[in-house]
Amino acid sequence: MNTEHIDIGLARYSDWAFTSSVVVLVAAMLLLAVELAYSRSRKAADRELVAAGTVAADSTTPGVVADEPKRPLDERIGQAGLALVYVGIGLLLVCIMLRGWATLRVPWGNMYEFINLTCFSGLVAAAIVLRRPQYRALWVFVLVPVLIVLGAAKFALVTMFYMHLKYDGWLLSAVFMFPLLIAMIVIGALILLFAYLSNHMAPIR
User: Fold this and answer.
1) By the 8 A CB rule, do 32 and 96 touch?
2) What pTM value is reported for the model?
3) 205 found inside a domain
């Protein structure tokens, strides 16, 4: 690799920011998935209370006075996940900016940088569209493809160039690609699992 016009220190910090962003976004996805799993059952429980004739303490309508509602644990978990999403977006922006400063050019000069910028733009767009609390659980379906693309880009960069997999035989390529395929299958299975649990588990109090 030609490093004549590259600031190695800034490039290293950019890689650290990228790794930190991915780790934070994975943690955010897991927290938001927990909220997604319990939000539907919580809404169903609220509808049952309404159907049972519960009323607020200051209501003039006859009925059973409902307890003062507390913010459910799954909602607090979802808010923590959303905060981590914003942190992850910020770290990805730092990664892109440091990459540009390290190379003294626009930070989309190769496929790795272009993918980072594309994922960052998608996350910013999602932050605008999904800014309302009722849309928060939908972040799971945004983060999964973004993390897959970011992970695949980094995986391809490391294995093809730094580990010279590009110049090795097809068998070694298959050995490295198989774990990536397994990881994608596991992520898909987790999404299906949380979708199932969202309809079959009681809300967290």
Assistant:
1) no
2) 0.70
3) no
